[in-house]
Design goal:
Layout lengths: L6 H9 L10 H14 L5 H11 L2 H10 L11 H12 L3 H22 L7 H19 L4 H19 L14 H5 L11 H18 L14 H20 L5
Helix pairs in contact: 1-2, 1-8, 4-11, 5-6, 6-7, 6-10, 7-8
Length: about 250
């Protein structure tokens, strides 16, 4: 069996309910993994939220909206929903932001699977089959750094199976980023609704954008800032200011 080349990242991120994300610099991932290992069991979801806030800040998300979601096959069909969810996040409406992204993850995941001539009966299987087929394609066609691709795909499969789509009663962390609990209403307001819930779900959207790019002429690197994305990032910061001035936490 072929194994990936980043098992130390896989293990570190899996231990705190995360995965190897696309569009992230290796230096960032290395520093984050080192901090997880240094703190051990003391590294909590609050720590993870702080790290992901840097990864999914106004500048990076604005660049994705302007230069990636717009042009990525399948993902572009959900570009308005994604953009609205991002706005809701910066306005502090995290329950709404997450509720907007969960259908995108499932819809885009199924469509990407169908585009590869594959199908499944259960939504959790969508992501396992997508990851498996991407690994196969990387190996057979020598696409990308195969060992790193394998690690990323295995990491995401672990995340979807054991975090995002695990039985809500077995959810292993305190943040509540769980599809079943959120969409079935078994999770109430107090069970989720923090920025980390948004970060984990937008991370899954980005992963599907990465999968789509396997068969499209789109870079696997994070998009550069443009004049348009800088204006959008400024708007996001204005939304954060509105939230701050309102005096409400929304969570």
């Amino acid at each position: 069996m072929t194994t990936g080349t980043l098992p130390h990242f896989e293990n570190a991120f899996s231990s705190i309910g995360w995965f190897l994300p696309p569009y992230a610099a290796m230096g960032f991932l290395s520093a984050m993994a080192s901090e997880i290992l240094r703190k051990g069991n003391e590294f909590g979801q609050g720590d993870l939220e702080q790290w992901l806030a840097h990864l999914y800040g106004a500048d990076s998300l604005a660049a994705m909206v302007c230069s990636r979601y717009l042009i990525t096959p399948v993902i572009t069909e959900y570009k308005e929903t994604i953009a609205e969810s991002i706005e809701a996040h910066f306005l502090g409406l995290h329950h709404v932001a997450v509720a907007g992204l969960v259908p995108v993850i499932e819809g885009a995941g199924r469509e990407l699977l169908a585009s590869r001539g594959l199908s499944c009966n259960y939504v959790r299987e969508v992501f396992s089959k997508l990851a498996s087929d991407c690994k196969r394609e990387s190996i057979e066609k020598n696409i990308g750094a195969t060992g790193e691709i394998i690690s990323m795909m295995d990491s995401f499969t672990n995340f979807t199976n054991n975090v995002l789509y695990v039985d809500s009663k077995k959810y292993p962390f305190i943040d509540g980023t769980n599809r079943h609990g959120i969409t079935h209403g078994s999770f109430k307001d107090g069970d989720y609704g923090s920025p980390i819930n948004f970060y984990k779900t937008i991370g899954a959207v980005d992963f599907l954008a990465f999968v789509s790019a396997f068969r499209a002429a789109i870079s696997w690197f994070a998009p550069e800032a443009t004049a348009e994305s800088r204006r959008l990032a400024s708007y996001y910061r204005e939304l954060q200011g509105i939230r701050s001035k309102s005096g409400r936490s929304f969570t």
